[in-house]
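ok trying this again, last paste got cut off
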Amino acid sequence: MAYRSDDGRWQRLFDDLEGELEATEAEESLAAVADRTRYEFSAIRLVDRLRGSLNQRLVVRLVGASPIAGVLGAVGHDWLLLEDDWGAELLVLLHGVVSITGLGRWAVAEDAVGPLDSRITIGLLLRRLARDRRVVGIQLRDGTQLTGTPQRVGADAVDLLEHDPGEVPRPTAVRSVVTIPWQAITLVRSR
């Protein structure tokens, strides 16, 4: 827009106004982008961010426990699997997680993974450990540590044959059978 005046004052005024309008439009555009980014991020779930961080080293704080660290190997609907520096597999139940350090910026939606990945639940994993008669360490929300072999896995609880780590769960070695609701478990350490 060009206006003529003898001394150019009007032209400077119009140029100033035009510059202010352009700056305001640019700020509004940036604000709209920021709002849209915040809105889109609000739809991303923790498991989506975990799936986007596979093979990264994470530090996970759990209720009632010291932080654990390891490389993220797998993610399910309600769990994540870390491998620690000594090669132990740590099955972490998400309801026991207080915080995670080391997550990447990327997310992978559930519909982008195979149909089986989203169906592998904590119950299915515990049933496999029971079937294989694996000795595990189970950490509870209150910090209690139990060692034994999962025996029976129900819809929301597991029976653990409590015994020493080096023992086979024979009747003479089993100290007790402890029924543990899944909500009480924060971590299952595979020996």
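PB: full thing came through this time. The CA atoms of residues 61 and 157 lie 23 Å apart.
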